[in-house]
Amino acid sequence: xxxxxxxxxxxxxxxxxxxxxxxxxxxxxxxxxxxxxxxxxxxxxxxxxxxxxxxxxxxxxxxxxxxxxxxxxxxxxxxxxxxxxxxxxxxxxxxxxxxxxxxxxxxxxxxxxxxxxxxxxxxxxxxxxxxxxxxxxxxxxxxxxxxxxxxxxxxxxxxxxxxxxxxxxxxxxxxxxxxxxxxxxxxxxxxxxxxxxxxxxxxxxxxxxxxxxxxxxxxxxxxxxxxxxxxxxxxxxxxxxxxxxxxxxxxxxxxxxxxxxxxxxxxxxxxxxxxxxxxxxxxxxxxxxxxxxxxxxxxxxxxxxxxxxxxxxxxxxxxxxxxxxxxxxxxxxxxxxxxxxxxxxxxxxxxxxxxxxxxxxxxxxxxxxxxxxxxxxxxxxxxxxxxxxxxxxxxxxxxxxxxxxxxxxxxxxxxxxxxxxxxxxxxxxxxxxxxxxxxxxxxxxxxxxxxxxxxxxxxxxxxxxxxxxxxxxxxxxxxxxxxxxxxxxxxxxxxxxxxxxxxxxxxxxxxxxxxxxxxxxxxxxxxxxxxxxxxxxxxxx
Length: 541
Hints:
CATH superfamily of the largest domain: P-loop containing nucleotide triphosphate hydrolases
Helix content: 25-40%
Largest sheet: 6 strands, mixed
Radius of gyration: 26 Å
Low-confidence stretches: 281-286
CATH architecture of the largest domain: 3-Layer(aba) Sandwich
Shape: globular
Number of helices: 18
Number of domains: 4
């Protein structure tokens, strides 16, 4: 349990929020949402004690342990992977070190013997004798296989370190757990493992994430930072989003009577409650919406960009044909081999692989930016494409301002290009900003504006939600569901895939899985699971 009392956070004259009073209780998972800069991570830092609040206090239950997902991925470079995880339970780790130090003494006394006995009892009560096995199980669940467990952290890749730090935070089932973007750099299968793990976690969790599906699957409550306030709601992210949009529509409809508004809101609550069973929250204490009342539902001040892809012409019957395509890395590693597929009208295809380099290689090839090791591809004569690459660095190696930069990619006057930047939430004064100083999110919004100028009938998107905030992701997702052209894309966003794709192609070094189905059916299909294990066997993936 975490109790926050009269909390206020202020930096200079800027007040993030004040008078925050709420209690986070065991058996519940609280998703913290808010626009960029609202103070989501700051709230976690204040609760963890890393940041001293301007006012107020944070308290936990007597004797309770707090665990925080560390953002310093190089802190443990000299430690083994297994020891790094074990250090997540600081009490157990300290007891073990004291015990081992006593056993190592050359002049071991009777007094030392009594102290060791006490420490052994504490060690046992804390689960010390199964700790290494428990830590190893966590690591394996997060994709860190046993051969890596005795390696030094400094030998691991950045993505592997992220997973070890997550295992450290989860280790020992802390009473209170703070997770800031825990799904970053996790593949879809590992995110699903984490959803299952947290779905059966019996303690208190606060989580910040841009992954909407993850928040929907695990969260019982939503903490919304908006209006300069921190407000607690029952329900997950989708409930908050849909209810805030409903409230906004009602606020805009001045003619709607109060009784009709209340009836509409109550019907919405009933409808949403019927879908709660889809969440991974399985214990009786984790019930969403149990205390919700209509008065809690309010419109949000969030602004959503206008991501609207339109087509100059409908695609013909021939979209794209790929024959015998093969891609390799510079060192000869095979990313995919003998790839054959034909894109049909109305298809929105997601490409998957345990090696994300495979999708990038495919997209670079079919856009003419790289040559395949073997095979060929052919676009239909009616097809125009718009490509969003994974790495956009080269586009911004210039000191041009935003307006001039966008003007390179289309024809029109200044007002025309400003309108596209305005859709992406760039203000009048922003458009003269140099593009080489933009943030990752701003660059991505510029790239999306560039794509919209194309009026293409086939979109190629390599991990399009990278660097975007929740509002941009939601707007992007909403438009792609309505887009009438073809889409070829890769993504780590479960919700994005599940609501956009109607065909799935998985690339492996040993062959391809090609299914006309949605993503939820794909990941549950036992025949697909068997085929995946066969195709990935011996690849180390």
